[in-house]
Amino acid sequence: MNHSLPTPTGSLAPKSTNSLIKSFAISFAFLALSITGASAQGNGFFESYVVLDAGSGNQFYDATATTANPDFHNANLGAFNCVETLLLGGQGKAFKCSPCDVTGTRIFWRVWSVAPSGSFTQVNMPFASNDPGAAPGCQDQTWQEAGAGKVNVLAGLIPGNYTLEVYFEGNATGSGCPNPFYHSNSGSNYQATFEVSGCAQGNGFFESSVVLDAGSGNQFYDATATTANPDFHNANLGAFNCTETLLLGGQGKAFKCSPCDVTGTRIFWRVWSVAPSGSFTQVNMPFASNDPGAAPGCQDQTWQEAGAGKVNVLAGLIPGNYTLEVYFEGNATGSGCPNPFYHSNSGSNYQATFEVSASGNVVTNINTGKSSVPSKPPSTMRRP
Asked: Rounded to whole angstroms, how far apart are CA atoms 280 and 271?
């Protein structure tokens, strides 16, 4: 996703008023020194820029320059979500007068919340060009990182309000030449604020369905979903005779948000009469598809067993009244990610009743007037 920074401009920073002032200053210094037989000396920055790219190309911000670009210091850079990037580079306009030679420049940065903290990280600004306009015996230069060497200052940030703080440093050689030299806002550095928002985290089910097949094809029942399918919990599945089957599968609609990854899901079931008893048996629900509709940085998925892996829950039952009880479980990897995760009706599970008759041609009602394909209207149990 491309993010627009405030006040777009061209990709190159224009020459500024500061540049002209610097040139005049060096010219006067050179003129004065030439009268005494000396020559102009020194080196340093005369302009510096913060380069930011939020996905729509480089935006130059004035740090010390005075141009048509927006000022970096005290700027509000806007809001970003967890899948966006904000790439940082920099540009330094430097001068050098014999015998001084500028040998390297860099921009230092850190991001903090609430109060200044943490160490600075450097981004090297390599030599780009020798530029016109310097006084005799001097040379103007551009040092810049506005390409592949930019770094993402949003990496690893959680939702919150932040400050991006930067300063510029250079090195030079030559007797009496300033080394290192800085643009640092008199030691206070240059600061701009931004917000990280919309970063959904975690993983889990947002819909779950019980799949039943009484011989006429799959019928999806809503466990937590809210669709046109019948609800499973408290349903009466009807009556079955001893020659019929009732095959059970399941479907789980899951979400995962970086760094979480869902690795497997299953439906657990048991059948009991009179009172809850017996252990649960699992039916694995393998991965079926990645689905649209997730929040930024997340992925919706379908995990499902609606085929040959379904099991017959009537096997071995004698005539009587029964309850089919189920719940859903999934696993995930990733730091801080829920594992395992459940749909279990707050621990009470999902229950439906049915009858097994001794004999006869009992007509089951499991598929009456129902579609075999689940629909997906907006769910009341949705992922972030």
From this structure: 9
